[in-house]
Every structure is written in structure tokens, then in C-alpha cells.
## 1
Amino acid sequence: MAIRRTAAARFLATTLLALAGGPALAGGSGFPGQESLVQAFYYEQRGDLARAKQIYLTTLEGNYSPRANKDALARLVDLARQAGNVQEEIGYLEIAVRAGSQDAFSGLAKIAVERKVIPPTLTTMGPAYEEAALALPSVTLAMFMAELSEQGTAARYGIRETDASFWYLVAAQRGSRSGLLKMIETAVAAGRDPEALELLGHLPAEDKAQKILSFGKDLARGEDRMPLDRNRAAKWLAMAPAAVTRDTYGSLVRDAISDGDAKGALFWYAKLGSAGGVGSASALGKLHDIAPAKDRKAILATLMASAKRGDAEAARVAVKILTADGGKPSAEVVALLLAAARAGDPGAIDQLTRSVASLMPEDPETETTMAALADAAENGSVPAMTALARFYGSGGPVEVDAETSLSWYRKAAKAGDPEAQFRVGLLVASSDPAESEALMKKAASKGYGPAKSALAAAQDVVTN
């Protein structure tokens, strides 16, 4: 359809076409079919897309010139894309491909990769797609070829069977981050870790750290196309920041326990311990309760090793397992409790104290257990100090020794323990009333009831 143009309208349409990628008219000169393109583009800019599309189609059917055909197809592709009409977009691109446009291959590849729609010409022109992928600086085409190779469908379309990593390399060389990442992932999946590490060096430091952690987790769990390989996973995770590594080990322990995987839980728990981490011992203890007999020994050994490294939680769990049948504490149990006590676990001191209370001086375990309690006291454990003071004051596992009892009470009192302050206050009341009163007041100020009562009674005596 012809348009009536004023000079201004003609200038506007020509300028719009130039901005869209087509050459402007200059004094009526140009290529055959350009007038129709200007006319269609004018309607396109006014929003009359149906009329614009019809003119583009008419231009294409008129076959005025290769340039007119190319520009008309380009606008028809864009209009179909804007309308979300994938099949129509593919149709126009396929016309362009058959007309010899290599650029159109990229458009078809983009649709195939992003929308998972295979263009019909791939079946009949597969080698041409491959040729275009090599000739054009198109990342999309290279990634499409890689996808076909990875799926094992390249030969179906007459495309040479090439390893996907070749096409990922081509994409990466064209500046594709996705291509580089795919190369790295392929290398890790194939067990080529040195190659993957070298390629990771091309990523920014933050991205590199994230991928290292991600590969470690995937190998640990056998996810995201990665084989299950705990030893390799541990090597990858060891390259992450220490705190992140420990957190990940703990998470993997819990995952393995949740899955009932004793071997995996033990592996990652050992790694957690060697990395200086603690935790997850209670969960491992629960796994011990339900694990087959062959796994229980290994779980207990792992807990004990962790306890000796200072993991108080592991020590408590191991002691619970070892004392499940009751009886007097073994040297092994005492050693575990002492390790926990040295790690600052007050619960271990309480348990050690209860173990001592069940013994008599002639029991073979007494000497070792009392020595462990004394060791904890000498290392600053106030509960151990007061326990020793009570044992030497009332007997039981040791003979009564008032002097030793007072000595331990004094040490605990000096450390600020209100019960010890009260006890020393009672013991020195007759020999040193001033010290007794001072200690009673300290204990009372901390809310210790017996000390408050003693001071109140003393006040009543003075008042009456």
C-alpha cells in the first residue's frame, strides 16, 4: 500500500529505518525494496504491527534484492519474538538460513538452547550448523553444539561427534563465562582436578571460592553429575576457608547420619575433628544405638579419638556408651571424663564425681579416678576442688583427712565458690572469727542460702 508522505514524514520514516539498522534514503537512491521497508517500519513505529508485518511479507515475496530480503526477514523475526510466537520466529529464521544467512543459525541455536525447541533445518542442514559454529564468533552456537555433543545426539543430525569440552573451549575463547564454567565442571566430573584448578584461576577470587566449595559438596554427595568420591571431596573442601570447611564437614556428618550412612558419617566426622571442629557427637551417638554391630566399634573408636583431642561432647557420648551396662568406671571411662574436664566441661566433672562416690579405698579404680579428679582440680576446675574437699571431709573413696579437705575448700573459696566460702567460714569460725564472717558475707552476697541463715543466726545472738 502506498503512503502519502510530506517531506517531514518521509524524513522521519527514513531516519527510523536508519536507526533500526537499514541505510537511509538519500535523494531517492538506495537498494531495490528499500521504499517498502521504510513504509513498513513507519507503520511499525506507529504501533500498527499487523500492517507492518504484511508489508514486510510483501517485500519478501517481491524478492526485490538480497538486502531487502535480509532486512525484511530480520524485522519479521523481531516482530515474532516480541509477540512470543516461537514457531513463527523459527520459520523466518529458517527461511534466512536457507537463503544463506549464517547469522540466522545463531538465532535458531538460541531458541534451541533457551526454549528447548529443535529447529527443523537441523535435521537437513546439521553440517551447516557446525560450519557456522566454527566460522561465526557466536557463543550461542558453540554452546548449542556442546549441548548436542553432551546429549550424544550430534551424529543424528550429521554433525561430527566431538567431545563437548571442545565446544565449551570454543565458547570460553569467545568470552563466555558459561563455557568456562562448563569446561571446569566437565574436568571435575571426569576426575581431572589439576586441569579444573588451572581453569578456575581464570575466575574472580570470590567466584573461584564458591565453585571450590560447590564441587566439594557435590562430590561428597554424588550430586549434579558428579561421582560420589569422599576423598576427592575432602581435598576440594580443604581449599575453602577453614570456618566454611568445618561447617560443611558438620553438615555432611548430619546428612550421612540422617541417611543411616555410618561409613560416610565416620569419614566426615573424622575430617571435622582433624580440621579442629567439634559438634555432631550426640548425633553420632544416636547412630551408634541403631547401627549394625560391625559399625558400632568404629563409631566408638572415632568418638574416643575425638574426645582425646578435646571434644567434650564426644567424651560424654563415648562415656555414655561405655557405661550403658552400669558397673564401676573403667580406666578408659575415667580418661575420657578427664579429657572432657580438661576441655572445660562441667558435666564431665559431675560425672567423674559420681563415679568416685561409688568407689571404696580398696577398689582398684579408686587411685586412678581420684588422680583424675585431682588433675581437673589442679587445672582450675572449681567443682573438682569442692568434690575433693567433700570426699576428704567425709570419707568414702579415701580416708578422712580434715587438713586436706580444708585445703581444697580454701582453693575453691579463693576461686569464688559460695559453698566453699561457707564451708571454710564454718571450719575457721572458732579459730578466726573475722575470716569466718568475711567469708560468710561473700557467700551470702552471692545468694547462698546457708550463709544467709548463718549470718542471720549470728545477728540474733548478738541482739539478744
Note: Confidence is low (pLDDT under 50) at residues 1-28.
## 2
Amino acid sequence: MAEDKVYMPSGAGGLVRFGEDDGEAFKIKPKHVMFFVTGIIVLELVLRFLPK
């Protein structure tokens, strides 16, 4: 008696993309992120060492 094997469909061969549309609300350049983070660090240091 032969065994009945069930083969699952391979879909798109691993090439399925979920939610990849270029309709982003806004784009931020890495340079701007670095400036923002550096500004937060400087602000934190200034606030930490100001006399109370």
C-alpha cells in the first residue's frame, strides 16, 4: 500500500514581501538622526552640570 504524502505549496519561493511600500510618512537622513542624538546628549550634560 502506497503512502499518501501531502506536499505543501512553496508559495513564492521565499520572495514574499510584506508591507514594502514606499508610502512612508517622512524620511529622515542618518545625518539628521546623528545631530538630534548629539543634541540630546549635549542638552543632558548641560542640565546635569548646571548649578541648582
Note: The helical segments are 30-49.
## 3
Amino acid sequence: MRRTGVASVELAGLPAVPGWKVLARRGEGASSVVWGAERVDDGALGALKVARDSAAARQAVSREAGLLARVARRWGPALLEAGPGFLVTAWTDAVALALPAAREERERLVAIVAHAVGRALEELHEAGVRHGDVKPDNVLLHAAPPRRDTPSERGATLIDLGLADDVREPARGGTPRYAAPELRERGEAGPAADLWALGMLLAEILDPDVARAADAHAAIVAWRRDGEPARWIEALLATAPGGRPSAGWVASRAARWLELAPDADASRQRRVDRVRRAYLAARAEEIDACASVSAEVPAPARTWIEESLAWRARLGDGAARGAILAPVGAFAWAQCLVRLVGPSVAAWPLPSPTVTEGRIGRLVELARERDPSSLTYQDVFGAGPVATRQRMVGSDEQVLVRLVRELARPAPAPEALDVAEDEIAAGRFGTLAVPLASALLRAGETGRAWSALRASDGPESDALRA
């Protein structure tokens, strides 16, 4: 039987979606119309996006729904329902982003947006998805300021994945003012382009002259602003895409600056979600070509894949596919590990193919206790209990000595980099600026390195800047 979705907006006016009561029309775009909606069984409010009457429009809405299903957003509107030609996301009770007049208020708003949008981009990028249109119009501001680093208390929300796509696909458009250099010059549209756009957005919030300037980037290059939020912006606007810090780094720095209370449950869930997204991103092409999953794929990977296939079935896609998804291969497994741990995985021994799929459960177990970027080969392929890593403790002199030693290593522990950045931001241990910047440069983190050097003067710092 042929699946049917909502009726065409142009032909039928008010759309009809089973299980949902359609409310007021809220907006429209080139390929879709957005309505408010209420779920009949529990009264939950949603944003109903209905494709216009064209194959391209229906394909665009279907693509967006598929990406939302892969990401499983927590720091943005979650996917509630989808079908041929429509999708429903959770309603966001917020207002359009407005720029305050006072500098102190602007700096705080920079941090609120950097935190919430950074977390939103973090989960998109973990799933191998780019947003593609980060700009003020796509950021909503919540009435209550954030108190904790948790999705339910975020101060802003990044919306509209209409131009989002898998990072391997070419750009689908965007707003020229926020387009990164590599996007304008070479058409490269990876996650780093989202980070550049975030930097431009934050600069406009912080500095009214930038918001008014015809050439916003030229206005930023000409400024000389102090304060940590300004350093985030400069790091995000690194010319080299690979030199820009991750969205997660920006969000974490903003959370510390805002003095948000940590939430252990939210942090644990965020780490577990990262494993799920890395696995699904690494196997995205395989999953797209299959209709079912082999019984040899164990939980939790099997559950994640079955959920993905269920969403695709709702969209009426994939009925003609008959392949069965086999256990993860060596290439996809390596991609998953690189997404989670980083390039240091290249030095790990190659495991037997028969043990890789079963290690997904181990990764989830580890993620409940530790940041995946801190994992070692022994952690992943060992069988012992999961050990947590404590932050450095001791006298100031003891902590300083440990940090200097760790930063001198070819690949310092991520925790050491975080602690060093915290200390420098707090105005302590200024002598760490050069060794920290050197360690970050070795890791290709030129934006973060430049930010660290803002706290240091002298010939060594000048040499690194050059």
C-alpha cells in the first residue's frame, strides 16, 4: 500500500496530521509552511513543518526529518513525529534575539548564546551533521537565564535545520554575511563553517559597530577587546578551518564564565549520546542502504539502528531496500573511534574484527564515567572496571608543576588543557600561557592557542603568534 502524508498546503490549506490538532500558521519558507500544533493524546505543543507541493520540497523536509532522527536533539527542538511531506518538532517557547544596549549585558548575552548554541552545534557535529545557517534569525532567547549546564535550562535555542545536511554533502545555501572563508572561496561546508558563523554572530552581539558594519569581519579585525568572551570570538574566527575550537569547547568555556552549576546527569547523558551519534555517523551510508539489521549486531548498537530504520519507515523511504546491515567493519569502527577519542587513535593496535562491535557497549559504559576524548586503548579493549579521572589537586605549586609536565608531552591529556585554560582565565599561572599555546598548536588548535596567548607578552609569545 502506498503511504500518504499530509495534504498539499497549496491545495488543502490547513494540513491534517493524524494525532495532531493544527493551530495557527506560524511562518513559511521557500519549501515549507510552519504551523503550531497540539498532540491530541497529551496536549504537547509542536511546530508542524509541511512541505509545499513539489518533489524538491518534500525531499527537503524528509532530509531534515532524517537528520533530526540521527541527532536526537536535546539542546534544540526534538523530533516528535514525521511522515511523507511533514515533520513535527517540540515547540520552543522563546522570543527573537534582541541586542541589549549596555556592554555588561551584551557580554553576558554573548556567553548565554555561546553556551546554548555551542551545545546545540556540538550534538549536530557529533552526528556528522552541519547546521548550515547559524545567524541571529535562527536563535531564540528564553525568558529565564540559565542556572545549570543542562538542556532544560538553556538560555537560547538554535532552530531551523532547513539548510542542514550531512557534513559530506555540499552546501545547500546560507547567509553570505555569516559564510566562512572556505565556504565562500572553495565551497567547503564542514562543521568549522558553523563555528565561523557562530563567531560572527557573537561578535555582533558583543559590539554594535560590528552589527552595523557592512563588512563585519573587517570591523572585528580592527577591534582590540579584552575579556574572555572576546577571546572565544577570535578563536572561532581563525582563518584555518581546522584551527577553530570545537563547539563543545566554546559551550564549556561559556558555562564556566556564566558560573553555571554542573549537572552530573546531564553530563553523563551528553557523553553517552556522543557515543551513539559517533556510531550512527560512522555507519550512516550503510544504514541508508539497508532495510533491517543483522541479529549479530548486539545492543545498544542494534537498538540505535532499529530506531533509525523506524523513523525512515515513517517517512515512507526505503521500502525497496532489502539489504541487512552486518556488524561494523574495521573502517567504520575506526571512524567511530576517531570521532570519540581523536587522532591519537591512529597509534592504537588494530583489534580483531570479531571484538569491535561488542566494544560499543564498553564505550557506553566508559562514557557514563569519563569524557570519551580521554580514553586509551586499554580502556576500550580491556575488561577491568571503569576508572574515573579526578581533576588535579594539591598546592598551587604542585598543580603548576604537574601542568607544565603534562603540557610538555607530545599529546597532553584533554583534562590538563582544560585546567590550564581555567587557570589562565582566572588570572592565575600566567606562565602557563606559552606551554599551553605550544601544546594547542601541536594539536592543530590555533584558535585556542591564540586565545591563550592573549594572557602573555614577551619574545616567546611573539614567536608563537608569528
Note: The chain has 21 helices and twelve strands.
